[in-house]
Amino acid sequence: MDRRATAAAFGVALLVAATTMLVRPPSAPGGESGPSLIAKGRELYLTGCQSCHGTDAEGVPGVAPSLRDAGASAAQFMLTTGRMPLPAPDQQPVRRTPAYTPAEIDALVAYVGSLGGPPVPRVSLAGTVLSRGMQAFMLDCAGCHQALGRGGVVTGASVPDLTSATPTQIAEAVRLGPYLMPAFGAGTLDDRTLADIIRYVVWARSPHDPGGAALDHSGPVPEGMVAWLGGLLALVVFARLIGKRWQP
Amino acid sequence: MSAPRREAAVAGLLLIVAGCAVAFVVAYATDAGTQALGLTLGAALLALAAALAAAGAWILPNEISEEPRRPPAAEDDEKKTVAALRPAGASITRRRLLAGTGAAAAAGLAGAAVVPLASLGPWMGDTLVESPWRRGTRVVDVEGQPIAADALDPGGFLTAFPAGADIDATGSPIVVVRVDPRRLRLPEARRAWAPDGLVAYSKICTHAGCAVSMLRSPLFSAHVPGPALVCPCHYSTFDVTDGGTVLFGPAGRPLPQLPLSIRSDGTVAAAGPLSGDVGPAWFGTRAPGRSGGW
């Protein structure tokens, strides 16, 4: 075999390897897949989740909802953001360090996903339009999450900051509507607009500043107020320098 | 510097004030942008400060001197002095120069202060009270597309507008929310206003007129009350299931509700006008008996 053929064969082998890695299903760590992964997830569920959600994920009235139609999407969102498990069932779920390892989360997601409900969404930001994303974000999201997604408060709950949410987690949250957030189905927010919104949220973590000191991107009005304050102080200092103390 | 030069310098500064103020008026009229407005007005005020400072330092008498009282001069002396001074006062004097340029500066600055009044908003007239919603008005989204009744999932909401009307009018924007019909506790007269659990309220807060853009929509309602619409300005909270009554916050009246109906093609339309006046209440704009939302 000459060198050119060897190189070609090597290239084909690389391509095949890369394609295999790309098409490998995301929820199959360590070679486990299908029934064994679900069984492992069920085991983890029985030790960590069933005290609130019930033995067969049917929910406990007044304590925790059923997970029968929650789907892999909701499970992955709640577990990868550390919102579940909750320290107490009546607390607001907030972003924490995940309690489970990625492999354990994959198993739990496979188990909850096997009970029905929407799968984990696939998010692609290719071909998204930033300005459309901004407009949609301002219309539907900025009321609570603020224009740059830094979070805030709503009556009786805090609104999470979006700066550390992954694109998949944003898509899952929009469709699910966790805690007090409204759920946005495909009828009100199609997948394209959702991808545009995610593009904007990612962009808004370090937005372009039109000039001056950005002051953590708080906008031109706070910048102007700081400038006024500095200017007034400078005037006071100036007046002290040019003035003379009155002596009777 | 000689005295006439100093006077000329002050007069020149005052003329610069007048010129910059006129430039401000021109920039305002030609819509040359806020940078030009700021530069011209700032330059006018700086030149005015410089003129006043220069006049104070150079022209106004600055020394303290004492003169011993003399015996009264003869009447002839006084007449002679007046006669000698009169011709000097008849020509252009320092006083007239400075008064003239000062008046020009004052007129220019007054113009610069008055002209921006043209930027005050349009006369509102009845637009604060009127609403384009009538029986049969179709409900459309922000791009003008009709809204299908099944587009909203339970717990979802969207902002909607009347078809063919000005979407910027106070009475236009509404929030459509879908709730579980079993959770609705609407008054008897409004039973038919929420087909399939679709309820609609004005998006303008009845407290200060902000956009009511937040919806508390509990995923699991055992621990938290809701659903409720919340205004982000002062956290007025309105019960979605109970005709928009105020649960919390400074708002004094419920959000006006819009009765909805579902057309034969599955899209949503208004089944009547809004139940009350839209927007904030203040003295004189809400006559007694007109506030149907109570």
Please characterize this protein's 3D structure:
The complex is a heterodimer of chains A (248) and B (294). Chain A is mostly helical. In chain A, 50% of the residues lie in helices and 2% in strands. Chain A is built from ten helices and two strands, in the order αααααααββααα. Chain A has a two-stranded antiparallel sheet. In chain A, a hairpin with a 2-residue loop joins strand 1 and strand 2 (157-159). In chain A, helix 4 runs antiparallel to helix 5. The radius of gyration of chain A is 26 Å and the shape is extended. With 294 residues, chain B is α+β, with helices and mostly antiparallel strands. Chain B has two domains: 3-62 and 78-119; 139-270, Rieske Iron-sulfur Protein (3-layer Sandwich). A five-stranded antiparallel β-sheet of chain B has the order 1-2-3-4-9, with no helix packed on it. The longest helix of chain B has 27 residues, at 3-29. The interface between A and B is medium-sized, with 30 and 34 residues.
Quick recap of the structure?
The complex is a heterodimer of chains A (248) and B (294). Chain A has 248 residues and is mainly alpha-helical. Chain A is built from ten helices and two strands, in the order αααααααββααα.
Layout of helices and strands, plus pairs?
The complex is a heterodimer of chains A (248) and B (294).
Chain A: H1 3-23, H2 34-48, H3 50-53, H4 71-80, H5 102-113, H6 130-140, H7 142-145, E1 152-154, E2 157-159, H8 167-176, H9 191-203, H10 220-242
Antiparallel strand pairs in A: 1-2
Chain B: H1 3-29, H2 34-59, H3 75-90, H4 94-114, E1 139-140, E2 157-162, E3 174-178, E4 198-202, E5 214-216, E6 228-230, E7 237-239, E8 246-248, E9 257-258, E10 260-262, E11 268-270
Antiparallel strand pairs in B: 1-2, 2-3, 3-4, 4-9, 5-6, 6-7, 7-8, 10-11
Helix pairs in contact in B: 1-2, 1-4
